[in-house]
Design goal:
This protein is an alpha+beta fold and 299 residues long. The protein folds into two domains: 227 residues, no CATH class; 66 residues, no CATH class. Helices cover 28% and strands 22% of the residues. The strands form five sheets. A five-stranded mixed β-sheet has the order 2-6-13-14-15, sandwiched between helices. A four-stranded antiparallel β-sheet has the order 1-7-11-5, with no helix packed on it. The longest helix is centred in the middle third of the chain and has 16 residues. It is elongated, with a radius of gyration of 23 Å.
Length: 299
């Protein structure tokens, strides 16, 4: 997994504790340019109006986490080691969050100490139910509404993606230049990392998995999507739609079952809006294997 950051902070402590294979750095560094794909792909259903606008207007949409297909996207499942509540240092972890739970209590005061100890005893009564209840509340917290997610793929040759994101091969796939996306807005971007079991979160270590890592972690059931994602922050939903310059679109790939009428409409758009500067391809099934290939289309 390669992660490029601009506005998002990622600490080496988090990387070491979770042992994720992440390369990180300043994405303004020209050395980053050879570490991410030159084109990323968005599968589109041509029968859906706002999908067609992706081509007509050269625009992309940054979804809210709760709008995504995967219920665990961004809001990943987390496991806890409930034995930590018996550790003598666990009270210190509680005291760190007390200002958010009881802001009226002054840190270091006798009242603060008593409240922390009572809170600790409450958790120890039933650690599992306490953590699960609070994790459920956290998943629905509005703090996730500030994220915008543009999910693309590293490949335009994925049969399942054509099947359920491009209307069974009747749609199209748009190939965008990620360099142009990063120039258009502040964002973090990288390949999704797929894992089979949830991360075990330690309150004693103080590493907050919701700070950054959850943005790129997905369950391994989604690994066939070969996702490359772009993350940004929004203040309201009007900021989720980003219009890119026409030069951001590098390729258009027609589905293997696209109708002649839809194909003609795509070509008219490429001529009128993009002045025939975008390469056009069409997906065709390989005759010797269960895979696709693309062939260039002159227009």
């Amino acid at each position: 997994m390669v992660l490029y950051l601009r506005k998002i902070n990622l600490t080496r402590t988090a990387l070491e504790d979770y042992k994720l294979d992440i390369t990180y750095g300043n994405w303004e560094d020209p050395l980053m340019n050879d570490k991410f794909p030159q084109v990323i792909y968005k599968y589109r259903d041509w029968s859906i109006s706002h999908h067609r606008k992706s081509l007509f207007n050269c625009e992309i949409w940054f979804s809210a986490p709760k709008q995504l297909n995967d219920p665990y996207d961004i809001r990943i499942p987390i496991q806890f080691d409930y034995r930590e509540v018996e550790h003598p240092d666990f009270i210190k972890s509680i005291q760190k969050v007390m200002p958010f739970v009881y802001p009226e209590a002054r840190p270091g005061s006798y009242e603060y100490k008593i409240i922390s100890e009572n809170f600790h005893e409450l958790i120890k009564e039933s650690p599992k139910s306490w953590f699960e209840k609070n994790l459920e509340l956290l998943r629905e917290n509005e703090m996730f509404d500030v994220y915008g997610v543009f999910s693309a793929s590293n490949s335009c040759l994925l049969a399942l993606m054509w099947g359920y994101y491009a209307n069974g091969g009747q749609g199209i796939c748009l190939g965008f230049d990620p360099n142009e996306i990063k120039r258009a807005l502040k964002c973090g971007f990288g390949n999704a990392m797929y894992i089979g079991t949830p991360i075990v979160h330690s309150l004693l270590k103080g590493v907050q998995v919701f700070d950054i890592l959850h943005l790129f972690i997905k369950g391994e059931a989604w690994s066939h999507e070969e996702e490359f994602r772009v993350i940004t922050f929004v203040e309201n939903d009007t900021e989720r739609l980003i219009r890119l310059p026409p030069k951001a679109l590098k390729k258009v790939i027609l589905g293997y079952k696209i109708s002649d009428e839809d194909k003609s409409e795509v070509i008219r758009c490429l001529k009128d809006v993009y002045h025939s500067q975008v390469k056009l391809y069409q997906i065709v099934p390989e005759l010797t294997g269960f895979k696709f290939k693309k062939k260039e289309v002159s227009y």
